[in-house]
Write a structure and sequence with these properties.
Elements (H helix, E strand, L loop, with lengths): L1 H18 L2 E7 L20 H8 L1 E8 L4 H10 L3 H4 L20 H8 L5 E6 L14 H4 L4 E4 L11 E5 L2 E5 L3 H15 L6 E6 L24 H6 L1 H25 L6 E7 L20 H4 L3 E4 L8 E8 L2 H9 L21 H4 L10 E5 L9 E5 L3 E6 L4 E5 L17 H18 L15 E2 L5 E4 L6 E6 L8 E5 L5 E6 L7 E2 L6 E7 L10 H6 L1 E4 L8
Parallel strand pairs: 1-7, 1-8, 2-10, 3-4, 3-7
Antiparallel strand pairs: 2-9, 4-5, 5-6, 8-9, 11-12, 12-13, 13-14, 15-16, 16-17, 17-20, 18-19, 18-21, 21-22
Helix pairs in contact: 7-9
Length: about 550
Amino acid sequence: MKKTLSIICIVFFVLTAKSQHNVILIIADDLGSDYCGFYENHLDTIAMPNIRRLLVRGVRFRKAWSNPLCSPTRAGMLTGRYSFRTGVGDAIGASNSAVLDVNETTIPKLLNIYSPNGIAKANIGKWHLQLPTPVSNYNNPALMGYDHYEGCFSGGVNSYTNWTKVKNGVASTVTNYATTETVNNAISWINAQPTTKPFFLWLAFNAPHTPYHLPPAGMYSNTSLSGTDADIAANPKNYFKAMVEAMDYQIGRLFDTLINKGKWQNTDIIFIGDNGDEATVAQNTGGAKGSIYQEGVSVPFIISGPSVVNPNRTSDALVNTQDLFATILELFGYTNWQSQISSTKPVDSKSILPILNNQSTTIRPWAFTEVFKNPTVSGDGKAMRNIDYKLLKFDNGTEKFFNITNDPNENTNLLTLPLSFNDVTNYNYLCSNMTTLVGGVSYCNSVTTPINTVNSLDNNFIIYPNPVKDKLYVISNNPSVQVSNIRIVDALGRVIQQLSNIQSQNGINTSQFKKGTYLYCENGSHMSMYDDQQTYFKGLIGFVHSVEGQN
């Protein structure tokens, strides 16, 4: 009899532990990865001590992509589908962009199927997936499967201390600081949940979205800020940073509540930005919110909690924000969600669980993003990347191609240069996959025939073509290293010519060289065939043209 009671107790314990598993998704509005010092190596960073608490028991993803605007990203996370499938390609209300169809299959709808009335589901904070008029649209979150909605329904607030909050279909004016109010509402909802009932909380801040402002005292570090309109206009970055600090401060209150309620240890927390920084504060002026360049789509992304095996890791896996759809469902144990997906509405989401379980280092071979408006604008287009390369296809017919491992700021469009065999291979791979994904016309154009290359003696540079007829090109493999001059020497080590102030895109005119084989030596060094021959032969370049009067 004692043995039977013991078995019953063990089974009861297992069921209770599983039933208490929670997931919180925290979304920062207009926060790219460039200010996250724990995430990227940027000179200008923001202190985020509470978000850093997630790192200790989490995985940070360095190659996470969002859509470049908030509504498409949110639609993608909620449905697991790319924008060309949902129709949401722009910030809703900013143009004639489609709103998210209520017939879409969403995370909370599937949780209802998986566990009817068994998982509490709330969306607190910014919604921005439906127009705020007519008033009946305020019920839109409930139609998408949520039990509770409370927050800013539209794309933003005119004032963080005087704004309209919608709670379960009813609007009211709120004067409490929006970031604080959002966390207050989240804490109240969590406290109202039964002790053993699991919950899913979608917590979407308005911060640090414009309008930039000075948060309440005690939430930010720069005490010299005046908060005047003139100072904000002149120094938007300072106020942007203060707003992020205030958001982090309030997130700390949420975390402390989870700890005090005994829910911290059984709650997985996801932190992510919905797109890059707004242009006035972006650190790389080549791209920002709204663009498919890196600064528009690279976002901070951390998953932290009991589901992470061997935490405090950094992952270089390619991740789309659409992947949160499958991941959140599987964090709740709903691994057969595919059975509920209609073949007419395919889902693009890939579960990140294998990375969290430390069973895999990758989940997808490429990442994809896009933006489209109505009417269209010049920046509309699609982008796809693999680990090293990125292809941008703009709707106006132009295209760009970057090696973003070597050129993370996207300064050199490889399509303006002769392409190496590796370049061409990756271009064809990305454009063919984009064609297969999107369908319709081919996204592959004919590119320059690949040419042979030779690496520099220390692998800092690629020199091409080899053999050379007219011009010799030198491309840096290392953005931190620049070649200043090259010596062309013969087999005996005799300097044939010194080439200085090299401009990679213009190439080096080699018409003066005789037909033959020469050795290039970077930055003024030189050697002969009588030195280290393995190194020597790596540097050989053949000149196959003929100089007038010579063979």
